[in-house]
Write a structure and sequence with these properties.
There is one protein chain. By secondary structure, the chain is mainly α. It contains 6 helices and no strands. The longest helix has 14 residues.
């Protein structure tokens, strides 16, 4: 009689390869549900407060804090990575201004770029950015 070898074809017995989440796939509710969920998670984890404490503890900031702006930018990148050059237009179509407690007029290109200045600046002691 011929030999018979059985292959393990059970997909559950194979180890799953870990994946890095580089885009959040979401359903129909990409303007409210996913935005609200990510803002709530970021709020509970203290993203905006942590950014503000680290980079602008002594600064007198008018308008939305860099922490809020950069958290909103991160949510944008997670939900719609291709819209990063249209952030100002994208954010106006979401619930983020309401969730952030910020007037939509304060969420413009300059405010987002200014927020980056707080976390990306020249360190005079090392001479690096």
């Amino acid at each position: 009689m011929g030999g018979f070898t059985e292959k393990n074809t059970n997909p559950l017995s194979q180890k799953a390869k870990p994946r890095t989440l580089d885009r959040l796939d979401h359903g129909q509710s990409n303007k409210s549900g996913a935005v609200t969920l990510l803002w709530e998670l970021a709020s509970q984890l203290g993203f905006a407060q942590t950014i503000d404490e680290i980079c602008c503890s002594r600064a007198n900031i008018e308008g939305p804090s860099p922490g809020k702006l950069l958290t909103a930018w991160a949510i944008n990148r997670a939900l719609d990575p291709l819209s990063n050059t249209m952030l100002e237009n994208w954010i106006a179509t979401t619930d983020l201004p309401r969730l952030m407690g910020v007037n939509i007029a304060e969420l413009n290109r300059l405010s987002f770029l200014s927020a980056m200045d707080f976390v990306c600046h020249e360190d005079r002691s090392s001479g690096q950015i």
